[in-house]
Amino acid sequence: MSGVSPDDYDRNALRNISIDNSSNARQWTYQYCTEFGWFQTPSASISPANYSMRSELLNMTYWEDLCLDLFNSTPMINRTRKEFAFYRQAGTNTVFTNGVEDPWQYATERKGVIEFGQTSLMSDCTDCGHCAELYTPKPSDSMELVRTRKIVAKLISDWLMYNP
Fold this sequence. Notes:
2 strands, 5 helices, mainly alpha
């Protein structure tokens, strides 16, 4: 993956508290340890021989230990659920976008609440990973990704034009 280094995941490197503008790995790790409480663990329903992206060693025990070791904090999953409406975002005029290959899609709203003016879009295409709809457009982009970008632009335009 471009822009990612082994130090972004190395426990000893993550202990370094000096300011370094070349990596935000420690800040990101702190955020998911203390706020998100959502970790990319291997699926228990899949046999270990079929794990595609996650080692079976990256289970909740690993993540809890990492957060405790680095920040003296355990994941605050219940607090986060309560703070962010327990599985439902209450914000209005919101578009949730996800790429089908993004493991973070399960930590967001995959079905928006129409009454709140929420829309949820899934770009189902090759290389539609995390934030793919925010990448600089290029001629080789899939039609699905182009469609998602057009819908997002239209929604935002409509929200900005609406003035009650």
